[in-house]
Amino acid sequence: MTTSEALQKLQHYCAYQERSPFEVKRKLILIKLPKERHEEVIATLMEENFLDEYRFAAAFTLGKLNQKHWAPKRIRVGLQEHRIPRVTIDNILNQIDPGIIEKNALYLADRWFHSKTKEQLTGAMQRRGYSFDMIHRVYKAISGERL
């Protein structure tokens, strides 16, 4: 595959949704572009604004926060899996409103209150990155409302 073909393919790949540089590197390996051309293609994608690490991190964070109801701790792990630098992660996570995190925790606890035991609910919320203190607080609030 030539560099221009790979570039065109990756432009479509990046235009579909926000991608991390790590995902683009994996895609370059899949399409079997020689390693010595990887940096050139990635640099071109960044210059043409198809690839932006910060924009990806912001979109990833908002998606996981609003759709999956993840807590910042779990979002941090997800961003680290995409090889996003710590400085960028810290910057993005510092912009999250703590009220949204608590609202999401209350939503999950309320949704799962009748279908799970307290232990199951705690485990499920911990997997989403919530602290034990937050889980205990929202469980107490939800169980108080239900009585």
In summary, what is this structure?
The chain has 147 residues and is mostly helical.
Helical region count? 9
Largest sheet: none
Number of domains: 3
Low-confidence blocks of residues: none
Report mean pLDDT, rounded to a whole number. 93
The third-level CATH topology of the largest domain is: Arc Repressor Mutant, subunit A
Q: What would you call the shape?
A: elongated
Question: What descriptive keywords fit this protein?
Answer:
3 domains; mainly alpha; Arc Repressor Mutant, subunit A; 9 helices
Overview of the structural elements:
With 147 residues, this protein is mainly alpha-helical. It has three domains: 3-51, Arc Repressor Mutant, subunit A (Orthogonal Bundle); 54-93, no CATH class; 98-146. The protein is 72% helix and 0% strand. The protein contains nine helices and no strands. Helix 4 (53-66) packs across helix 6 (86-93), helix 5 runs antiparallel to helix 6 and helix 8 crosses helix 9. The longest helix has 15 residues, at 98-112.
Helices and strands in order, then pairings?
Layout: H1 3-16, H2 21-30, H3 38-47, H4 53-66, H5 72-81, H6 86-93, H7 98-112, H8 118-127, H9 132-146
